[in-house]
């Protein structure tokens, strides 16, 4: 499964390099990258349209934030595309979907933890919504702002505060452990331990990356067409940052991902 290995130190300049790598990989395989992102975009469109139709539009932000809890596992398909491109192959859409079929059981265990925390987050957001905005019909318009503006701001503030705590927990646990586990370089316990150690060992850099990552993805979900490009770019950039913290081992030391 893998052995204990140290995490390298990275600097803020590595974030810029990772972004450039993410853009470069996206430009190399734009078609399959956008096609895979389209799946998340369509699901997001359905969910956001539904909550708007039911007059629950303030829940759009916590639901978008909830993606940050599930996203680290859901984008494993992009790790597969990036790995194949790294090996000089030409990945196809079925490779991205096949990543979940080939994923080790340890990754599914981590996915269940993420799903559990997502349910906690949505439940807490729903309870907070019922206390602050219950009974109000709030579609995607501003005609309700004079009456509900203060309550909505209160909901967004306290909801964001609760979500930030869960999001940081998930980020610390999954930022590096997901690709480590996916590439079978570690089991779930070793991967999480190594990932958390890497995050806190590079705390300021990882905090900055987490803020950039969450800001870009949250804004993109609220402006859904942007997600078609931003999701693959940020996923590839995250994989590039992971490669800087945990450089790839010689081929003989790591089982093939495909």
Set down the secondary structure blueprint.
Blueprint: H1 12-28, H2 30-53, H3 60-74, H4 76-86, H5 93-102, H6 105-133, H7 145-174, H8 177-182, H9 188-201, H10 203-222, H11 227-245
Helix pairs in contact: 1-11, 2-11, 3-6, 3-7, 3-10, 4-5, 6-7, 9-10, 10-11
Summarize the structure.
By secondary structure, this protein is an all-alpha fold.
Largest sheet: none
Task: Specify the structural class.
Answer: mainly alpha
Number of domains: 1
Spans of at least 5 consecutive residues whose pLDDT stays below 50 are 254-258
Shape: globular
Over all CA atoms, what is the radius of gyration? Answer: 19 Å
- The share of residues in helices is over 70%
| Tally of DSSP helical segments | 11
What is the number of strand segments? 0
- Strand-and-helix sequence, N→C? HHHHHHHHHHH
User: What's the overall average pLDDT, rounded?
Assistant: 83
């Amino acid at each position: 499964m893998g052995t204990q290995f140290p995490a390298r130190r990275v600097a803020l300049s590595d974030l810029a390099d990772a972004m450039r790598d993410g853009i470069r990989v996206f430009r190399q395989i734009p078609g399959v990258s956008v096609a895979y992102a389209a799946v998340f975009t369509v699901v997001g469109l359905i969910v956001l349209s539904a909550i708007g139709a039911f007059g629950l539009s303030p829940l759009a932000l916590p639901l978008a934030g909830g993606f940050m809890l599930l996203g680290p596992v859901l984008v494993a398909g992009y790790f597969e595309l990036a790995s194949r491109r790294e090996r000089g192959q030409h990945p196809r859409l079925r490779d991205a979907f096949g990543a979940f079929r080939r994923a080790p059981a340890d990754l599914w265990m981590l996915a269940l933890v993420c799903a559990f925390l997502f349910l906690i987050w949505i439940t807490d957001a729903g309870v907070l919504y019922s206390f602050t905005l219950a009974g109000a019909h709030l579609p995607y318009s501003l005609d309700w702002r004079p009456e509900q503006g203060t309550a909505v701001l209160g909901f967004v503030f306290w909801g964001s505060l609760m979500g930030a705590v869960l999001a940081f927990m998930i980020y610390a646990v999954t930022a590096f452990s997901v690709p480590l586990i996916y590439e079978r370089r570690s089991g779930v316990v070793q991967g999480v331990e190594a990932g958390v150690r890497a995050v806190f060992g590079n705390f300021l850099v990882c905090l900055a990356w987490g803020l950039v990552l969450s800001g870009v993805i949250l804004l993109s979900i609220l402006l859904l067409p942007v997600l078609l490009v931003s999701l693959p770019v940020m996923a590839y950039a995250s994989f590039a940052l992971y490669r800087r913290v945990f450089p790839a081992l010689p081929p003989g030391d790591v089982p093939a991902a495909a």
